[in-house]
Specification:
The complex is a heterodimer of chains A (about 425) and B (about 325).
Chain A (H helix, E strand, L loop, with lengths): L5 E4 L2 E4 L2 E4 L1 E4 L5 E5 L9 E4 L4 E4 L1 E6 L12 H10 L2 E6 L10 H11 L5 E4 L15 H6 L4 E3 L8 H11 L5 E4 L4 H4 L4 E2 L2 H6 L3 E2 L1 H18 L3 E3 L5 H13 L3 E5 L27 H13 L4 E2 L28 H8 L4 H16 L16 E11 L18 E11 L2 E5 L2 E2 L2
Parallel strand pairs in A: 1-6, 2-7, 8-9, 9-10, 11-12, 12-15, 13-14, 15-16, 16-17
Antiparallel strand pairs in A: 1-4, 2-3, 4-5, 7-18, 18-19, 19-20, 20-21
Chain B lengths: L10 H19 L13 E6 L5 H12 L3 E6 L2 H5 L4 H10 L4 E6 L4 H8 L3 E7 L5 H17 L10 E5 L6 H12 L3 E5 L15 E3 L2 H4 L5 E4 L15 H8 L3 H4 L7 E3 L12 H4 L6 H20 L1 H5 L2
Helix pairs in contact in B: 1-6, 1-12, 2-12, 6-7, 6-12
Classes of the chains: A alpha/beta (about 425), B alpha/beta (about 325).
Organism (chain B): uncultured Acidimicrobiales bacterium
GO molecular function (chain B): amino acid binding; aspartate carbamoyltransferase activity
Catalytic activity (chain B): carbamoyl phosphate + L-aspartate = N-carbamoyl-L-aspartate + phosphate + H(+)
Chain lengths: ~425, ~325
């Protein structure tokens, strides 16, 4: 074998540095060997067609529930990373609300080992508090020493303001970022959707937008107080977007993400009582959807994160108020972002790849597409049209709210450290 | 009509049809042997995930008076928690061969889910805070009966109805509002803001926080059951304060016109939302509501399972 094992030919390269017509050659060691127009294919090299496609750094998800350990009925690291690779992702941050929670070095190592050899790199997040119970700090430094860069009690927020302050102060010396699921537990207890006209009509207990906004406002204040960075998970309300916009203008070290369902669906989707539309934070109003889109467009929101939350079929065949919240997202995020956001491919990729990579401190992903860099890439066919079929998803679960929806734009090839793990929208192993 | 899930499935014409049919079943109920062979060979199962004596008995009486076979599947919350999913339970019941499933569940929306899973007709007998359509139908029937007894036309046009109390958590209120406004009545909700649903501004109702001002103007006052356990949710300072401001006390009942009806879906908290002697006042229709409940449910089962249902395909 020569110096080139793989050639992505005929595409347009897009990364943080800009857009240019270029082929990408990948060396046998999994790094990028050459980037340039009309590279000659070496004998023996695999050539993947990228004509009409965008060649970009692989997507990076800040918010994936892989469910393992403990929730293998819903998803495993193997099935979740397969879904991720098919969605164009080369790296996912695995949320720590597993059973047991990722609140010790042992569980961090377990998830890291499960992720070794997967179709997508897995970066476990650790919890902020032991068992996500909100009372004692987790061994943040010990987990950080294993490479953990993001800490969160996701699923719930850290309600105790003093504890959150201490966590931020403690973490600030470690080069890690704390991420918050913003939800005031007193206002959200016992609720199952957004509080508004629809919840009133449907007779489903709802949580007001203020439940989220209170904690967004508090954490902005705590970041200002401590100087420590805070990443705000899955922002869903117009008020939250506005708070973050003002905090950023002031220079507070806050970053934020939004999930595809929060710029695609509204609370009206709950009208048929199908628990597949139940999610936390809940689907909001059209005004909130517009605000989330505006926040993604003007840079207030830094990343699109899936909040991929698999649940087994039987769990979602319960009453709406008894079913667990959460929806699948890895295989549909790219198509939804391209379809629903009125943004250029470059901006969409910034939100899906290099900006989340920077927030998560993942150096090997998110580009740039340059010689010597690890070849973590995805080739996107922006014209590919496909219809979401729950049964055809790679996830172990079926709880997508987009069944039957036709999307335009799909990951065609995904390259993980030089290995083509997805070719023509099919996993290679 | 395949199922009765919401009053909005019926519309004004459908409600009128049920009320007309109810007349004939009231007549059946007054016979010495109050039974007709209309639904012989049909099986009606009550699937009650929530305790209810009056509604379950009312549906069972209705089915039996129509000569249907009845089954009763009471599911305690604990056995549900043993793991059988709602869908599995429902499919098991359907496999026994049933024609109608009468569903009561503490969770809003369950009848919609059940209707998607089974071919049998589904009747909503109360889902969470959401709807209780047969209660609304019997309330409308009872109001019309009184209007006709007084020599009126029985029309709801311009009828002023006040619904007082915990609207937020009341499936009866949601169904009554839909039914009464569909028939042309003007509905005023009287409750403290903590007991009103979010988004009430878009409902076709008037909202008041002053019961004394509303009572002299109403033709009908419906009182909702105050659930004592709600006190824990800081919705009210105390039951005493609720009664003082929103209870139909003896003094307050004097503000009502002599012809005004006093209604309550039961079970009543005497001394909380309604004073004991007001409940027993001749203007009260509370006992009549229960009696009419059986006939209304006969009409609903007949529409779904009788010859009428086949004619509608």
């Amino acid at each position: 074998m020569g110096d080139v094992a793989l050639l992505l030919a005929g595409g347009t390269v897009v990364d943080a540095g800009g857009t240019r017509r270029a082929d990408v050659a990948v060396a046998p060691d999994g790094t990028i060997a050459a980037v340039g127009p009309d590279l000659a294919p070496e004998p023996g090299a695999l050539v993947l067609d990228a004509t009409g496609c965008t060649v970009a750094p692989g997507l990076v998800d800040l918010h994936t529930h892989l469910r393992e350990p403990g929730g293998e009925e819903a998803e495993t690291v193997e099935s979740g990373t397969r879904a991720a690779a098919l969605g164009g992702y080369t790296a996912v941050v695995a949320m720590p609300n597993t059973v047991p929670a990722v609140d010790s070095a042992a569980v961090v190592r377990q998830v890291q080992e499960l992720g070794a050899g997967a179709l997508c790199d897995v970066f476990p997040a650790g919890t902020i508090t032991v068992g996500r119970a909100g009372t004692r700090l987790s061994p943040i430094a010990e987990m950080a020493s294993l490479g953990v860069r993001l800490f969160t009690d996701d699923g719930t927020g850290v309600a105790d303001s003093r504890l959150m302050r201490r966590a931020l102060e403690y973490a600030s010396s470690l080069g890690v970022t704390l991420a918050q699921h913003c939800e005031d537990p007193a206002l959200s207890a016992g609720t199952h959707m957004h509080e508004g006209e629809w919840s009133g009509r449907l007779g489903i207990p709802g949580q007001p937008a203020a439940a989220e906004e209170l904690m967004v406002a508090r954490d902005i204040a705590l970041s200002r107080l401590t100087g420590a960075p805070v990443h705000l998970l899955h922002l869903s309300t117009a008020g939250s977007v506005d708070l973050v916009r003002r905090a950023k203008a002031e220079g507070v070290a806050v970053t934020a993400e939004a999930a595809p369902h929060h710029f695609t669906l509204t609370d009206e989707a709950c009208a048929g009582y199908d628990p597949v539309f139940k999610v936390h934070p809940p689907l909001r109003t059209a005004v909130d959807v517009a605000a989330v889109k505006a926040g993604l467009a003007d840079g207030t929101i830094d990343a699109i994160a899936t909040d991929h939350a698999p649940h087994p079929v039987e769990a979602k065949e319960a009453a709406f108020d008894q079913a667990p919240p959460g929806m699948l997202g890895l295989e549909t995020a790219l198509g939804l972002a391209l379809a629903e956001l009125d943004l250029s491919v470059e901006r969409v990729l910034a939100l899906l790849s290099w900006q989340p990579a920077a927030i998560a401190g993942i150096e090997a992903h998110g580009g740039p597409v340059a010689v010597g860099r690890p070849a973590n890439l995805c080739v996107i066919d922006p014209a590919a049209t496909w219809t979401v079929d729950p049964a055809a998803l790679a996830s172990r679960s079926r709880n997508t709210p987009y069944a039957g929806r036709t999307l335009t734009g799909r990951a065609r090839h995904t390259i993980l450290r030089g290995e083509p793990v997805v070719i023509d929208a099919k996993a290679t192993r | 009509m395949r199922d009765l899930l919401s009053i909005s499935d019926l519309g004004a014409d459908g409600i009128e049809e049920v009320l007309r049919l109810t007349d004939s079943f009231v007549e059946v109920s007054e016979r010495r042997i109050p039974k007709v062979p209309t639904l012989r060979g049909k099986t009606v199962v009550s699937l009650f995930y929530e305790d209810s004596t009056r509604t379950r008995l009312s549906f069972e009486s209705a089915a039996k008076r129509l000569s249907a076979d009845t089954m009763n599947f009471s599911v305690s919350t604990s056995s549900v928690n043993k793991g059988e999913s709602l869908r599995d339970t429902v499919l098991t019941i359907e496999a026994m061969g049933v024609d109608a499933i009468v569903v009561r569940h503490a969770s809003a929306g369950v009848p919609w889910q059940v209707a998607q899973w089974v071919g049998a007709a589904v009747v909503n007998a109360g889902d969470g805070w959401h709807e209780h359509p047969t209660q609304a139908l019997l309330d409308c029937y009872t109001i019309r009966e009184r209007l006709l007894e007084r020599g009126g036309s029985g029309s709801f046009d311009g009828l002023v109805v006040a619904i007082v109390g915990d609207v937020k958590h009341s499936r009866v209120a949601r169904s009554d509002i839909l039914a009464l406004t569909a028939l042309g009545a003007e509905v005023t909700l009287v409750a403290p803001p903590t007991l009103l649903p979010p988004g009430i501004g878009s409902w076709p109702v008037v909202v008041s926080h002053d019961l004394d001002a509303v009572l002299p103007k109403v033709d009908v006052v419906m009182l909702l059951r105050m659930q004592v356990e709600r006190q824990d949710e800081a919705l009210l300072p105390s039951m005493r304060e609720y009664t003082a401001t929103y209870g139909l006390t003896r003094d307050r009942a004097r503000l009502l016109g002599g012809e005004a009806l006093v209604m309550h879906p039961g079970p009543m908290n005497r001394g909380v939302e309604i004073a004991a002697d007001v409940a027993d006042d001749p203007r009260s229709t509370i006992v009549r509501q229960v009696a009419n409940g059986v006939a209304v449910r006969m009409a609903v089962l007949f529409l779904l399972l009788g010859s009428g249902s086949e004619a509608h395909g």
